[in-house]
Each structure stands twice: as C-alpha cells, then as structure tokens.
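Blinded run. Sample ID left blank on purpose so nobody reads anything into the name before looking at the predicted structure. Input follows.
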Amino acid sequence: MKRDNGSNTLCIPGVRTATKKKETIAMLLAGGQGSRLGALTNKMAKPAVPFGGKYRIIDFALSNCTNSDIDTLGVLTQYQPLELNSYIGNGHPWDLDRITGGVYVLPPYMSAKAGEWYRGTANAIFQNIPFIEQFNPEYVVILSGDHIYKMDYSLMVDFHKKKGADATIAVQTVPYEEASRFGLMVTDENDRIINFEEKPANPTSNRASMGVYVFSWPVLKKYLIEDENNPDSSNDFGKNIIPAMLACHNTMYAYTFNGYWKDVGTIESLWEANMDLLSSTSTLNLYDSNWHIYSRNPGMPPHYASPDANISESMVTEGCHVSGEVSDSILFAGVTVHKGASIRNSVVMPNTIVGSGSKINYAIIAEDVIIGCDVVFKGSSPSLITVIGPGAIIPDGAVIEDGVRISAEEARDLFGEVI
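Blinded prediction complete.
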C-alpha cells in the first residue's frame, strides 16, 4: 500500500481510487426491466439487448461518453443484471478501464443501516450520492441506457455552462400528432424551460425530452435529498425532480438535439431502429470514423456465403454461415442459414440456426435459437413483428402466426421437448 504521487490518497493494488476532481461525470440508468420487449428481456436488462449486428443497446451511451471525453461513469443496474455486468466488465472496449475514473457498475447494495432496490430514477441517483461525491464534480450528466443515438455530451455541458443553468434537458422536436407520447418542455424564445407537460392529451409544445440531463451537482444533490424525504414522491426525475425545480424557479434550459435518436422500448421501435441501419437515408451512421460506436468483439472468423447464398440489402456479421437467402435483414455473429431457407425483413441475433426450407419474415429472433426445417413465419407487416426468445427451439414444419411472442419456455409448452 502506498500514497499516490505525494497526495493523501492511499493506493491499494487492484482497487481504483479517485485521486482527482472530475469536472463532469455521467450516471447511466441501466436497470430497466423492458417489459414491453417481452421474451427478449425475460432474463436480461433492456440495455443488454443485442442491436445492429454487433452491438448491444448500452454501447451507444457508453461510446457517447468516451467520444465526449467523459471518462468517469457510473452504470446503475438492477433488473437481471448478470448479462449486463458481465458485458461491461472493466470497460476496456470503450476505453473506460482507467486508473482514475473509468466505468463502475453500481447495483443496489446493503449498507450497515439498510438496503433496498432502486425505487425510481431519482432514488437510484440518491442512493449513489457517496459515489458521486468522491469525484467532487461540478456537473452530472444523467443518461438512459436504452436509447439509440450518437451525441456529443460535451457540447451540451458547454451550453449548460454558458447559460448558467441549474439543469439542462436535451429535447427533440416531434410532430404534434405524436407529442402526447412524450414528456414535453414548454420554453420561451431563449430556450428557457417555463413548464413541463408529462404526456399531455392536448400538448402545447412539441419539444420532447430525450431523457438526457445535465445538472449542476450542488443543486441536484439538494433536490435529491428533499425528494427522498418526501413520503409522497415517486422518486422520479420526470414526475418529481423536474417539476420541483420548476416550481422553485430554478434556471432550466432546453438543449435541442437534431440528430438521430430512438427510444427502443418496444418491439416495433427496436425492429425499426435496426431496419434504419439498412436505409440509405438514415442519419444513424455507424461507419463514421470520427464517432465510433464501440462494443465487445466476439472474436469469430469472417462470415461465409456459400455458392447457394443470395444476400441483398443486409448486414451479415462475423462468424455467420449463409447458404440461403437473406434480404433486408440483420444477422448477428455466428448465425447459420441453411440452404433453401429465406430470411426477410428480420433481425436474427447471435448463434441462431435457421434450418433448410424455413421462411422467416418480419421477425426478431433472439440469440441461441434453433429453428428447424420448413418452419413458416406468417410475417406480413412491420406492425406485427414476431419475436422468438433466447434459447427457444422451434421444431420442423411449425407454423408461426403474425405478431406472436414465444419464449423458450412457451416453445416447450407449445411444441414439447424437441430433440
């Protein structure tokens, strides 16, 4: 054990210690159950769901932090955390394996006095005040782990500083006919927030909150403590913290973000975001060398397309072996498509096998699924996406109706044990 560079901070081998003040740190809320994703999230948190051929949803927020020069990040996990915790590891793929700072996974914990699950987004941050305080930050960026977007948070922090704001909320302009689905910021001509509408039936604004916040830490800490002491609070940023700050006339601004952003909290939105990657008009560019999206690489050999393969308008990742037809689809690492099979308008996650003669259309197939021979998916519409959960086995000749969601357990109930 030694002291670091003459400071008063003890350095213990194998333990990262915060030895420097950090002007800005980020807190990433990644504990969501994602119940609307059904079979895909029965055994994993929503941010861990695979996306885009080689990524997971959380890669976008983690990569945004790295690209924005935010090197200290707390990831708050809760629901089915094993997959997510294992995936993040020490943060090396995102250059977040730092001696000072880096990425920290922060599940709920038992203290000497008590322990409890995170009760809401604000309570999750409140329970981690000691973690934040060790870095003595001036600003805290609050993020969600279940959105697909590329954003430079440093520009938003600069905006926050310039405005002298207590809180800054990222917004996107949405069509008025869709505005009632969002939390909406009502602003004056200088972008100062004067009111907040939570999914109103008759919206007066179309500036939708993205769930990306910058707070001046001393101000946020005060409101978190007050909120925790309010027995009637839901302990939520949108329902409690933001309205409380507005009621007290804190300086709050809306920061307009004009890039691609999608909340992938539903099957339809997850499918749409994947399909956007195949569109020539999409503004989500994964090939931008100036803004990499980093991920853990599965380390598989190059994909192989046999002489029988027919691949068009698709992404095919390493380790795939394709002998059938693939069009307008995304295949993750290690997928096998046998001769005579066809996959259209679909997302097929890692290590899934599609048997010969099977026809898949408008579907999301999770990882480690086995689809037998001559299976027919009656997919006919992007509004009726079929979902097969991780590890499911679909037997030869099965017919899968439009829009059904089948977990591995449900597949056994429907088809029995398949050898």
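Unblinding after everyone has recorded impressions. The mean pLDDT is 90.
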